[in-house]
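W.,

You were right to be curious about this one. When I first looked at the sequence I had no strong expectations either way, so I just let the prediction run and decided to look at it fresh. Below is the sequence, 320 residues in total, followed by the output.
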Amino acid sequence: MQMSVIEWLLDSDPSIRWQVMRDLIGESDATVGRERARVAAEGWGARLLDLQGPDGHWGGAAFVPHAWISTKDTLQLLRDLGVDSTSDRVRRAIGQVRDRCTWGEGFGGAPFFEGEVEPCINGRVLAIGAYFGEARDRLADRLLQEQLSDGGWNCEAPRSQRSSFHTTICVLEGLLEYETAKGPRPDVTGARLRGQEYLLERRLFRSRSTGQIIIDRKSRASASARRASTAAWTEISFPTRWHYDILWGLDYMLRAGVALDDRMAEAIDLVRNKRDELGRWPLENPHPGPVHFEMEGRAGEPSRWNTLRALRVLRWARAS
């Protein structure tokens, strides 16, 4: 007998199951909480926590030139998995990061949760820090000061005064998580609203000036021919890392409590039309970099993560 999509999603890791229970099938808070508690104890979450080194970092030079890159990506992934930030095991791991991890000599040995200089990185660090109880007000203040006149952010500012989708979504994630952890703050809320409007004015993937689908100039060269007539941002990925795409943009709008807007309609339709005959969504455009072990298949194969995220967005769209 063929599995339903919900059964297929539940036949997986605790990190997916607890979010399906909360967002798609309406299980009780107690049931969701019990399943979520398993993320740090078994499956992908436990495996990631096991890989932390004695210096507090993950991977380091075994994967990338600088240990903080792998550490940042791993912590973002643990946040995506929804690991319980209050569990003893997670608190010990985060304490190691706080006490031992730095940005290296190039940034004066600054502690990890203080961030570095690029807003695309600092937005992710703020989101990670806020989620794990290590939010830094100074980092939030810096990001507010770096917002550009069009409402977004760009790591290449001040040389460029045109915002980047990639940088903007990373900063929005950071500001949203900061307010979730610390409560509303008028200047932060105002900056978020302007950043959200930057994306909405562009219908989440189009040029404001021409209306054309934006070609992501940072796409991998080996895939450039395949994307000659379409944007990488219309392809949905997991984990996203710093790479913007329409599903990440829509998922952010949902979590930020943004009212459904006609300017989201085309992006929602694009996501809806990616569903296969069994009601699943594929993994598209996987990004290079350390995941440490395989969680999903190859590009084009059904993805539980993308299916969960797409169903969550479509339920929100229907309810709205």
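Here's what jumped out at me. The chain has 13 helices and two strands. And, maybe more interesting for your project: The CA atoms of residues 18 and 32 lie 5 Å apart.

Coffee later to discuss?

I.
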